[in-house]
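User: Structure with zinc ion, tokens only please.
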Amino acid sequence: MVQYLQIASRARTELIDITAQVGELVRKSGVSSGVCHLFSLHSTGAITINEGADPAVRSVISRFLSSLVPVDGPFSHGEGNSDAHVKTSLVGPSETVIIEGGRILLGTWQAIFFCEFDGPRTRKVAVRISADD
Ligand code: ZN
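Assistant:
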């Protein structure tokens, strides 16, 4: 069964910590051992896992991507959001996390982020939780 997370971004470029929402879906699923697939249903929004403890890290990632792919770069896509499309492909649309003991298995400092590259918008992430047999 597929479930959906709704995410409201507030800035054009923003890494939003969705670890708690994903953890809540896993808890409600009652699955103690398995995997949780996350998939962004957007061409200008991605998913990554990185440090969540220090907010400076998400700012570093966001700024680095913007320096790599500037918004005013020599791109031809008519909507004016070419940079957002390129950043989304660089980061990727999905992550898979392991479920162990009824909880998502992450390192001490890791968090799951939805990466907004053309906000503010309302976004959807598809979530599929599979139990081991
Ligand atoms: Zn576009």
